[in-house]
Design brief:
single chain; 248 residues; Rossmann fold; seven-stranded mixed beta sheet; 8 helices; 32% helix
C-alpha cells in the first residue's frame, strides 16, 4: 500500500506531539490531523485526490474541508452536531447536517466515503459503516478509522482512567475539572474494538477489505493488527480500507 511509505517514525512522533494540543490549541491540532487525513485518503485511493468526490462523515468544524479542497477533491461532509460545525467559525458551504446512519446521498454517488474518529462516538457504528459502503460507487474506496477503546486513547480526554470503567473515568474527570467531559461515556463515547470492525469488514457483502493498519504507528509496527487481543491495546486507532464491489 502506498500509504506505508508515509507512515514513518517521524510522522508518528509529530502526530503524538500534536495530540497534546487538542484541548489547548484545537485549531493547531485539527489542522495537522486534517492534513494527515487527506494525505492518507489520497494514498489509499489512487495516489491523488484531484477530481475525486469525497464524502467525510463527521467533518467537524471545517478544517478537513480546507485540506481536501486544497488537494483538488470535491469535498462534502456530514455532521450531526450544529455546535461542532460552527466551532471554528469556518464557512460550511459543503456540509450537510445529518446522521451517519442515514446518509442523505444517492447510492453509488461517491468516489471515496470515509469516517475518521467518529465510530467510537455512535452507538451504531456498523450501521454507519454500511451507509459508507452504500453511497460509494462500484470500484470506489471506503475508509473507516476509529479509536480503539482498550488503547491508551480510548477514554479520550479522561485519560487512562477508562481502564477502570467509562463511568468511573467520567466521574473522575468531573471532580478534577469541575465540568463533564466533552465525550461522555454511554452518550457520546462508546467502547469499540478492532475485532468488531474486522468482523464487520469480513462479512459486508458489497465491499472487500484490502487493508487494515494502525493509523498513528510507523509502518514497521503495522503487523500488530494481525495479533488478536494485543491489537486492542497496541494499535490505538484502526484504519480499515475497503473497495466497493462492482455490480453483478
Amino acid at each position: 500500500m502506498s500509504f506505508a511509505r508515509l507512515a514513518t517514525l517521524r510522522r508518528a512522533q509529530r502526530l503524538f506531539t500534536e495530540f497534546g494540543y487538542e484541548q489547548t490549541q484545537p485549531d493547531r491540532f485539527y489542522s495537522a490531523l486534517a492534513d494527515d487525513t487527506a494525505d492518507m485518503i489520497g494514498a489509499v485511493y489512487d495516489g491523488r485526490l484531484d477530481g475525486a468526490v469525497v464524502l467525510d462523515v463527521g467533518g467537524g468544524p471545517g478544517f478537513f474541508a480546507d485540506a481536501f479542497t486544497g488537494r483538488g477533491a470535491h469535498y462534502l461532509s456530514v455532521e450531526p452536531d450544529a455546535g461542532e460545525m460552527h466551532a471554528a467559525g469556518i464557512d460550511h458551504r459543503t456540509c450537510v447536517r445529518a446522521q451517519g446512519q442515514q446518509l442523505p446521498f444517492a447510492t453509488g454517488s461517491m468516489d471515496v466515503a470515509y469516517s475518521s474518529n467518529v465510530a467510537e462516538h455512535t452507538a451504531e457504528p456498523w450501521v454507519m459503516a454500511d451507509e459508507l459502503v452504500r453511497v460509494t460507487r462500484p470500484g470506489g474506496t471506503i475508509v473507516l478509522s476509529y479509536t480503539l477503546w482498550w488503547g491508551p486513547f480510548g477514554g479520550h480526554e479522561t485519560g487512562l482512567a477508562h481502564y477502570l470503567g467509562g463511568h468511573h473515568a467520567a466521574r473522575r474527570y468531573t471532580r478534577r475539572h469541575g465540568r463533564l467531559p466533552k465525550n461522555l461515556y454511554g452518550l457520546s463515547l462508546f467502547p469499540i474494538t478492532a475485532q468488531a470492525g474486522l468482523d464487520w469488514a469480513g462479512h459486508t457483502p458489497d465491499a472487500d477489505l484490502v487493508a487494515a493498519f494502525p493509523r498513528y504507528l510507523p509502518h514497521w509496527a503495522w503487523p500488530v493488527v494481525k495479533v488478536p487481543v494485543l491489537r486492542e491495546f497496541a494499535a490505538t486507532n484502526l484504519v480499515m480500507v475497503l473497495r466497493k464491489k462492482s455490480a453483478a
